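Researcher: Structure for this, please.
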Amino acid sequence: MDTAYQTLVLNRLWQAVNVVGVERAFSLLTLEHAQVIYAEDGSFRLFDVEEWFTFSSENALGEGSRVIHTVNQAVRVPSVLLLRRYDRMLLREMKFNRQNLFERDGYRCQYCSGSFPAKELNMDHVVPRDRGGKTTWENVVTSCIRCNSRKGNREPKEAGMRLLRDPIRPRQRPFVSCLYGRQVEETWRHFIQAK
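Model: Predicted structure, token format:
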């Protein structure tokens, strides 16, 4: 079974809530927790597990198709599943890392307000670590290399600098925002485009 295939999972309101591997996708399908959404000629068709296996066997599978092989037949790996009962929107806490920090601050230095590419930005501890400052959302900001050097191992006030805004922990965000900007399956685009 090729675990490189992934399936987008939608709640019953057709909102993206997860991405799962092949085994989980078929588990949801065979337990009748989900249906396959299949895009065809600009419209969508829904399939339960039996219909999906029949559809897979009756429709030729082209080269490079997303397929697994059972003892009896080749079965298409669903690209998108629709959950039958779940209607909540999955929220994810933003992990603290360099990329998410830059996103929170809009790739803008929090001292000079300049906008820079990621390679020209640093993570700056407002209260330096050797003075007890922690590496948390509330104590780290995005800074350009020049401002980071100017501030050095001091607090902004000591360096004669001001923050554009106080650093805060970002709110939880919908799962789908984790997919923006990533390479995704073409069949997912309709369901994950920003509104």
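Researcher: Any notable elements?
Model: The CA atoms of residues 98 and 177 lie 17 Å apart. The helical segments are 22-30, 49-58, 98-104, 145-151, 189-192.
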